[in-house]
Design a protein that fits this description.
Largest sheet: none
Structural class: mainly alpha
CATH architecture: Up-down Bundle
CATH class: Mainly Alpha
Number of helices: 6
Distance between the termini: 11 Å
Low-confidence stretches: 1-5
Strand content: under 5%
Number of domains: 1
CATH topology: Methane Monooxygenase Hydroxylase, Chain G, domain 1
CATH superfamily: Phosphate transport system protein phou homolog 2, domain 2
Length: 206
Amino acid sequence: MRLFPKEENFFNFFEELADKIEEGGKFFLEMTKNRDYSAAKVSRLKEIEHEADGITHKTYERMHKTFLTPIDREDIYALVNKMDSIMDVIEATAIRIHMYNVKKPDDEIIKQAEILFQAITKIKEIIYGLRNMKNSKMILDGCVEINTLENAGDVVLRSIITELFIKEKDAIELIKWKEIFERIEEAIDVCEDVSNTVEGIVLKHA
């Protein structure tokens, strides 16, 4: 049984965007683990972000040209807008790490990057599940898992910020790292926004 029997190309766009976000999240995680925020790496991440923008705009164009969309237009807009925002925040984070020239990459950032990538991977799963009614339970369970990851990200951030204010004596470095850590948590928060949008779509149509 088809969950949405109308315009199929939208699901191709959703899945293409999910793939691109996963590519960007994996690349950022590798940058973080390798402590490599060089101009070349940041430039490649920016390319991935631009590619995600292209998919997003392609989806908007199709939405405006399609009479019967598979889901409400506001839901299509909200979904791809939030998905694209994940890559925007990831790119902005990497740019700041490079631009701020921090004294040393903090090991704690790896924990955040791993949680972020787990959330992105789960987003890809639920996006790929959107085509069929039989996947509704899997999708809703996945949304709960993303919410759990976001809560874990909050816990990690609180611990990191507490330790940062205890250990970092250089006020400028403290300010730099605080913003970086908070931006990664923002990306995790946006993952939860995506899952909330997907959950609403499924509950509306299932």
